[in-house]
Amino acid sequence: MLILFSFLLYFQLFVFVSPSSGETGIGKSTLMNTLFNTLFEAEEASHYQNGVYLRPRTYDLKESNVQLKLTVVDTVGFGDQINKEESFKPIVDYIDTQFETYLQEEMKIKRSLFDYHDTRIHICLYFIAPTGHSLKSLDLVTMKKLDSKVNIIPIIAKADTISKSELHKFKIKIMSELVSNGVQIHQFPTEDEAVTEINSSMNAHLPFAVVGSVEEVKVGNKMVKARLYPWGTVQVENESHCDFVKLREMLLRVNMEDLREQTHARHYELYRRCKLEELGFTDTDPDNKPFSLQETYEAKRKEFLGDLQHKEDEMRQMFVNKVKETEAELKEKERELHERFEQLKRMHQEEKRNLEEKRSDLEEEMNAFNRRKVAAETLMGQSLQGSSQPFRKDKKSFFSLPSACSLTAGRNLN
Ligand code: GTP
Ligand code: MG
Question: What is the pLDDT of residue 109?
Fold first, then answer.
């Protein structure tokens, strides 16, 4: 689980729960309340989100003469989904968006960085559940995605639920896994002599094992923040009970300014460099000579116009090719149609020829028949001259059928 912070000191604190914990309710709100000795909104987050969303809340806090504008960004739903692979993306995007907004302000002609509401994230508190088991690969992947963008401080939450010896082993295991996977968590700086000793010893205590509670309990004659159990009391601010005081000292007293500086000089600078390089800006030309902004702009403009021209040429060529292709397709279709027409024409002529042949055959037959008929009639006429009347009558009815047939055949041929 993750919490991000920023300080007017503008301070952005990012609260982040280890995705492998697979649950929220790990004690983020309680720890924030304990850390800043106040009661932030205690609305319980829904744990049935489809995705991860970030809930930034800004508070005005005042301690001594320091006014603190604190933004706490809660990662709601982180680790609650079945598929957690893309869980870190909204967080990375959120951090980048804050850098981008700052970069836009910086690049304005009229900048107002002095009273700019800096929303860049200064700390990511990475909450690890007190399981005693090793970190999951998803934890390592998530931290790896974030370590170049934000100062990660891993903390073991609800440290009162793990025994002292288990906690010791758990801390060693976590640190060795982080080192062997190349995850860079935030190291408190040791260069400044004033803080060398305290910061080196605090670095050795990472990850801080914390307990949160806003409940006040009387111990001796003092009221202290504690968690009461049937077997005893866990005092939040007792260094032999947990690392809460160490965390508070490191974040809010000793290193707050350094965390802000690291955010600007390391993480933001990296974002800015990558972004400007992505936009094509360089400091030197190919001959290693310094490049002025004007020259870079001109070069970029030329490159852009060249690209545009190239794209236009490509589109024109594509259009010409398309027209040619369509033309060729149409020609092919025309040729196919012509071929089909010729084929039909040939078939038609063939059929016509066949019909002609049949017609002439039938005419031939008809002529032959007519000839035979005339011959028969002549023959019959001759033989009738010497025969009786009744017999002639029968013969006439015999010839009436062929003559009717010849007439029908003649009509069909027409
Ligand atoms: P969501 O916002 O709902 O995700 O929860 P959260 O992470 O803000 O957890 P919250 O602070 O609301 O605490 C959840 C429960 O854990 C409460 O019952 C707290 O009293 C308890 N709790 C908080 N801190 C600790 C702790 O250090 N130790 C133990 N044992 N319980 C704690
Ligand atoms: Mg909460």
Answer: 81
